[in-house]
Structures are given as C-alpha cells and as structure tokens.
C-alpha cells in the first residue's frame, strides 16, 4: 500500500471520513475535534497528495478502496459508516457498491451529480486555472468555488481561508490535475453504481456554487427514495467547514437514529 496519511482517534462506532477535491485530512479538523467523543474516526487522505510524490499516475479509485480495506483490517474494523465530502462521497459510493455488507450508513456532504450545469461551469473555471500552472491562482479559484460569498467576506473566515490556501500549496500539482480528470469523468457518467439499501443522509449548503441542490435532490430521490436531506442555510460547498457545529449535530443525530433503528424495528425520519 502506498504510504498514506490518515488519522484514527476517538471511541465508539467507526465513521470513515473521505475528503473532497484538492483537500487534505486537515479539512476535517472541525469534525475530528467535534465528533471524536462519540465515534472512532478514521480520516483517510486521498492518494498522492504530497508534492514529494511527483508522478503522473491516474487518480485510481480502485487503489484507494484497497488502501481503505487495508486500514480497516489493520484496526480490525468490520462495519463502518461513511462520511464523504463532495469527491469523497463519490469514492465512498464506489466502496459501498463493492462492499455493501460492511457499510451501515452513508452521509454525503455536497455530493455533485452528472449533468449539473452549475458543476459544469465550475469545472470549466477550474480547468482554465489549471492550464495557467499558477498554484496561487488555482487556489483562489478553488476557494471561490468551495466557500459561500458571505463566508468569504467575514473577518473570522480569513484564518480558515489562509489555512485552506496553505494546504492547497502543499498538494502535488499532478494530483490536482488527475483528481480534476476523475471529476470530469464522473460528471459524464451514464449510470451510477448501485448503493446498498442502507440509511443515507445528504447534506448541502444553501449557497453552494458547485451543486444545484434542487436538480441533485430530484435525481437522488429517484435513485434513493428513502434518502434524508438537510440543507444548511448560508453555507457553501465546504459546508462542514463553514458551519461545523450545525453540521456535526446533524451527523450525530442521524447516526444516533441509525443506531436506534438497528436495535429496534423503526424507520428513519427527517429531522430539523
């Protein structure tokens, strides 16, 4: 297995955290600090994120899934819930498709779907930035896509933005390019992988610039009629960073319902 960065902490049921496009495990900082008393958190960094790993290998979900299994075997974990942010949700979806017996529930944060015009515009914008070979400019464009306008204009957001930009500057440029190609392929996919019949929660920010929430919710409801949706007011695509307390409470309540239903006969209900 490629040497990958990961964090494993906390106690309780295991929740695997999968980061999104151009994001390191540090992007889960609010969740690692806010949820570790309730869950064993396994935050896994996507492949080839460090600049030292300068190669042109394709961003391969199959390898990432294999690495994920090796880590779960290392810690003797048989059952997990998955929390995937944007591209991390795509990776987790592929994992649940291949190992349905291991996944108890799934939380998708800001999941992009095919045919979304808003995502197509964002991808075109990022492609121009990638072609410039200017990492600072690329970082600015990614930041503008990920965060809501309101958040970027708040004084206390500048510290988080600076950390996010610093994190991007440490990422291998070839990795960002390969992740971008992977996202373009997903955006054009004809058929989605099958998901097991498990509880699924979709969290979006109302000010998401990457995802058209209404379009995505309609598609998801056709694929997963029992899915639960939560829209956090005022948040952008990086909803777990902009509104961490609200986000963590939603995650905690959903997983609490999942545990209760596993121990009795009931059905999950939407919550506020």
Keywords:
7 strands, single chain, Rossmann fold, 11 helices, 272 residues, 7-stranded mixed β-sheet
The succession of helices and strands, N to C, reads EEHEHEHEHHHHHEHEHH
* CATH domain class name: Alpha Beta
Mean pLDDT: 84
The percent of residues in helical segments reads 40-55%
List the strand order in the largest sheet. 1-3-2-4-5-6-7
Strand proportion: 5-15%
Description:
With 272 residues, the chain is α/β, with parallel strands linked by helices. It has a single domain, classed as Alpha/Beta hydrolase fold, catalytic domain (Rossmann fold, 3-Layer(aba) Sandwich). It is built from eleven helices and seven strands. Helix 3 links the parallel strand 4 and strand 5 (103-109). The protein starts with 5 loop residues before the first strand and ends in a 10-residue tail after the last helix.
Explain the layout of strands and helices.
Elements: E1 6-10, E2 14-18, H1 29-34, E3 40-44, H2 61-74, E4 80-85, H3 87-98, E5 103-109, H4 117-131, H5 135-146, H6 149-152, H7 157-169, H8 173-187, E6 200-205, H9 213-223, E7 228-232, H10 239-242, H11 244-262
Parallel strand pairs: 2-3, 2-4, 4-5, 5-6, 6-7
Antiparallel strand pairs: 1-3
